[in-house]
Each structure stands twice: as C-alpha cells, then as structure tokens.
From TrEMBL:
Organism: Roseobacter cerasinus
Keyword Nuclease: no
All copies of domain ABC transmembrane type-1, residue ranges: 122-331
Pfam annotation, one family: BPD_transp_1
Subcellular location field: Cell membrane
Assigned keywords, A-Z: Cell membrane, Membrane, Transmembrane, Transmembrane helix, Transport
Protein name: ABC transporter substrate-binding protein
Length: 345
C-alpha cells in the first residue's frame, strides 16, 4: 500500500501540470481585458505600465512559467513565514522571511495576493458548505441503511420521495423557498448571512448557528439525496450475497450481520462518492453562497469570472483540481483499509 501511494503521488505531478496548462490556455482564450475597468482619465502610458506590472505584455509561456513558480515555490514560502510568525503550532520556531520581496500571484481585480484572499474567504465556506456536507452525510447513511434493510416499506418509500425532491429541485429554487417560508413569513431565521460576525462566547455561537441553518438546510438536502440513494443501492447488493446467509446461519445477531459485515462491504463504493464530494466543499456553493450573501470561495469565483480576473480564476480552479486528485488517492487507500482483499501491489 505504501508503494502504491508513493507511485500515485509521483504520477499525480505530470497530471497536475497538464491540468494547469489546459486551464491556463483556456483562460487565455477567454474574451475581455482586465484593464477595461480602469477609468478613461488614466493616461495611455500609465495603462501600459499597469499592464506590464500585471504581466499582460509578456508571451504566454513566460506568464505561465511565472505563475507556476509563484504558486509552487513562493506561496509555500509565504505559508512557512506565516506558520513561524502567527501559528500557535509553529510559533515557537524562529521567524522566517523566505518570501520577503518576492512577486506573488496578484489578483487583477483587488490588486492583492490571491492566496491571501482565498485564506480570508475559506472560513466562511467551511462554516456553511463544510457543515452542510457533514450534516448531509450523517443523515444520509442511516436513511440508506434502514431503507435497504426495510425495502419497499413506508420508510423506504418516504426516503425515495424525499431523495427525488432533493435531486429535482435546484438550489436557486429551494433557497428562495426556504427564505420566503422561514425568513419572510415566519421570521425564524435571517435571510442574509453576516460574514462579519465573530464567535466569542455561547451567545455569539447561537447567533452563528441561527444564521447557518437556512443555507445548510438547502445544501444538505442535495447531499442527503445523493448519498442515501447510493447507500441504499450498495446495501441491497450486499444483503443478498452468500456471505450474509452464511453469517446468519452461524447464528450471528442481525445487528452484527447488517452493521458489521454488510455495512463494511457496502461502504467501499460510498467512499468514492464522499471523497469526490469533498473538493466541492472547498470550492463552495456558488448559487447558495450568492443567494444568502455568504462571502465564501464560491462567491469569490463568481465575482472573479465576471471581472475577468484570470489569476484568481486559474488559482481557484487549479486548487480544485489538486483536491480532486488528492481525494481520489485517499479513496483508493481507504478501499484497502475497508476490504483487506484489495491490494495494489
């Protein structure tokens, strides 16, 4: 397993390089000019200097190489500098200045380092989208397990009905619906997420929890619908296998048969679904974050696309690609943990 993991990590390097080249070339073909938002009163020579400062006057291969160096070499140095200066975990180490004076990936829209903006937006996304993903998984797994065990029962039919609703209704409709019902008519929850709110005590935590309920409800519905259906199908495939009948014939308790033997084998395909959904947590939910005014990664990507901010768009999309490759590897490794018969040697 260790040899397989190392081999996959090595093979992921050319894969990610190829993905970065494709993303860069596609964005270069996108129409628009980042200097279009500059006021007309700015002299042409000043505009030209601004274009050179943004790297727009250089060949495509030079721009790509500079972005590659900044992303893989300079940004990790910034992370090291931050860890030794502000991190509680590594704050005892001597302060480093590895990235001082070096050119970083700069957003064309805000004229500030891209990764600094991403780090600022990430907590809001993890609060809302991450929590909705966890809630969706915790609800979906028991529903899928019990629906399969009680196939065609009233509970199974109700779970199927709710799942079809979750699959069919898009977030821009369900989001508006819950805002109208629970915020406008009932007044139970706020319709706008306050990104400036800071949790310092129990009272502020309740306020944070209250404003998270609506967006988490909208996103968790989709996660629950998807994973519960996969869980149900996987459990049904395993409940009719010979090893289940053998375990029951040996006199094992039904709870042991279902929750130990059947569940462990059924979780193998579910791991793929859950692992591949994790990058979407970091990517944010563009529609839901925009609808509830959550100042997260999804809304950041949307505004960067509208502003033609190519460094921001490329950095965010490449981070998503890295997460997808990483969690594919994690899913494969977990296969071997859940099923000892799976070996990659």
């Amino acid at each position: 397993m260790l040899t397989y993991t190392i081999r996959r990590l090595v093979l992921s390097i050319p894969t990610l390089l190829f993905i970065s080249i494709v993303i860069f070339l596609l964005l270069q073909l996108a129409p628009g000019d980042p200097m279009a938002q500059v006021p007309l009163t700015v002299p042409p020579e000043v505009k030209q200097k601004m274009r050179e400062a943004l790297g727009l006057g250089q060949p495509i291969h030079v721009q790509y190489w500079k972005w590659l160096v900044q992303f893989f070499w300079i940004e990790p140095q910034v992370l090291v500098d931050w860890a030794t200066r502000d991190s509680w975990l590594f704050g005892w180490l001597p302060d480093t200045t590895l990235s001082e004076g070096k050119l970083r990936v700069i957003s064309w829209q805000s004229r500030s380092p891209v990764m600094d903006i991403v780090v600022q937006r990430m907590p809001q996304t993890l609060w809302v989208v991450g929590m909705s993903y966890i809630v969706g998984i915790l609800i979906a797994l028991p529903i899928g397990i019990y629906s399969a065990y009680k196939q065609y029962s009233l509970f199974d039919q109700a779970g199927t009905f709710v799942s079809m609703i979750g699959f069919s209704i898009p977030p821009f409709f369900s989001g508006v619906l819950v805002i109208v019902i629970f915020s406008v008519n009932l007044g139970w929850f706020p319709s706008i997420y306050d990104t400036t709110h800071v949790v310092t005590d129990w009272a502020s935590f309740k306020i944070q929890l209250n404003q998270m309920i609506l967006p988490v409800m909208v996103l968790a519905l989709q996660t629950t619908a998807q994973i519960s259906r996969f869980m149900r199908s996987s459990m049904l495939d395993n409940l009719n296998q010979d090893y289940v009948r053998t375990a029951r014939a040996k006199g094992l308790k039904e709870s042991v048969v279902v929750l130990v033997h059947v569940l462990r084998n059924s979780m193998i395909p579910i791991i793929t679904v859950i692992a591949l959904g994790v990058p979407s947590v970091f990517g944010g939910a563009i529609i839901t974050e925009t609808l509830f005014k959550v100042n997260g990664i999804g809304q950041l990507l949307l505004t960067a696309l509208f502003a033609n901010d190519l460094p921001m768009v490329m950095t965010l999309t490449f981070i998503f690609a890295v997460l997808i490759v990483l969690f594919n590897l994690i899913a494969d490794v977990l296969y071997g943990v859940l099923d000892p018969r799976i070996r990659y040697d």
